[in-house]
Design brief:
- 41% of the residues lie in helices and 21% in strands.
- It is globular, with a radius of gyration of 21 Å.
- The protein has 2 domains: 252 residues, Aldolase class I (TIM Barrel), CATH 3.20.20; 71 residues, Arc Repressor Mutant, subunit A.
- By secondary structure, the protein is of the alpha/beta class.
- The longest helix has 17 residues.
- Helix 1 packs parallel to helix 2.
Length: 374
């Protein structure tokens, strides 16, 4: 099975922390962008070698900006160009301020069956310095409204490690999500990315990031609260009630193939990885004139080995050592390192898999890098 990711590079306004590819001034080329995305789907219909598609994911940017005609035209082309399985998971990322009864009906009729809602925080001042377009009230109402319109598979985003976020406030945020009774939560630590508004504010001393200890304490509190409420941490940043794991994102972590469509989107078909140009005008021009618009990287043995480690260790599924050994031999250094991590309480082993413990998940990137091969 494979997945298709569709990047919609439109946003109403710029969030201070975001370094994803998007534009807030897109009206003059909006229709050209949609036409180009549809054409790219047609042009790349052989990329996945006729593997069945079980997930479609609209990300961004802000896909909830799409109107009915735009959403339907993209999905119609996907169904025309690929074999999509019955009951495929179709996810739409949505901002709370875009969630209305009318939009929910449009999304449902188009086939969307999963919503990913960017709440981020229930603190008014956080939403203000983040430059989010929604209010705290919107956060509560949008989830309730989505449920009223028949959406059961809902995930919400939360952010921790925010400036001046106390542990009491963070616990309240977690409880607010529990009270909304959603089956999936994605929680991300605030990262100060280069060339963002947040980076400038931090550089000027106007915002002071949380310390690593504060971030770790909030993350561990999140694990505790969600576990008590029946959530399983199936990936470091993702938690779900049983049966509500994101099938699309699980494709990435399990090394399944996927096609990424739209400017800046990434693709993977087992042998190579490619990424589209992160420039809207260049992307549209390349599609219209049948020019090259993506960079291709042929994966080496080390690339495949290291990526299987990096993604697998982030998940509850762990890393299968037999599959890993099929890519490259398991070295003595690898065995010594895993034994050391196990002794530290960061890793556990079964007959054929290695997993990270809760403490190990705090160090996932470090542990994976220690096991990488050259």
């Amino acid at each position: 099975m494979a997945g298709i990711y569709i990047h919609i590079p439109f946003c109403k306004q710029q969030c201070t922390y975001c370094d994803f590819h998007f534009s807030t001034t897109f009206d003059v080329y909006r229709s050209a962008m949609i036409d180009s995305i549809v054409q790219e789907i047609e042009n790349r219909k052989t990329y996945l070698h006729n593997i069945d598609i079980r997930t479609i994911y609209f990300g961004g940017g802000t896909p909830s900006i799409l109107n009915e005609a735009e959403l339907k035209s993209i999905l119609a082309k996907v169904y025309d160009a690929f074999k999509v399985t019955d009951g495929a998971e179709i996810t739409l990322e949505a901002n709370p301020d875009d969630i209305s009864g009318a939009n929910l009906e449009v999304w449902k009729k188009a086939g969307v069956n999963r919503l990913s809602i960017g709440l981020q925080s229930f603190k008014k001042s956080d939403l203000e310095w983040m430059n989010r377009a929604h209010t705290v009230s919107d956060s509560f109402q949008c989830v309730k409204l989505a449920k009223q319109h028949g959406f059961e598979d809902i995930t919400v985003d939360l952010m921790y490690g925010l400036p001046d976020l106390t542990m009491e406030e963070w616990e309240n945020h977690i409880q607010e999500v529990m009270d909304l009774d959603v089956p999936h939560v994605s929680a991300y630590c605030l990262t100060v990315e280069e060339k963002t508004v947040l980076s400038s504010l931090v550089g000027k001393g106007k915002i002071v990031p949380a310390s690593e200890d504060q971030q770790s304490d909030q993350f561990l509190k999140l694990l505790e609260k969600l576990e008590i409420n029946g959530f399983v941490q199936y990936e470091i940043s993702n938690f779900s009630k049983p049966g509500y794991e994101s099938k699309h994102n699980s494709n990435y972590w399990k090394g399944e193939w996927y096609l990424g469509v739209g400017p800046s989107a990434h693709s993977f078909n087992g042998k190579n990885r490619s990424w589209n140009v992160s420039n809207n005008q260049q992307y549209i021009k390349a599609i219209e004139q049948n020019l090259e618009f993506s960079t291709i990287e042929v994966l080496t043995q080390a690339n495949v080995f290291n990526e299987m480690l990096l993604t697998g260790l982030r998940t509850i599924y762990g890393v299968n050592l037999t599959k890993l050994a099929e890519i490259a031999p398991i070295s003595l250094v690898f065995q010594q390192k895993t034994a050391e991590f196990e002794k530290n309480g960061w890793m556990e082993k079964s007959a054929d898999e290695v997993f990270l413990t809760k403490e190990g998940r705090l160090r996932a990137d470090f542990i994976a890098s220690e096991l990488f091969i050259d």
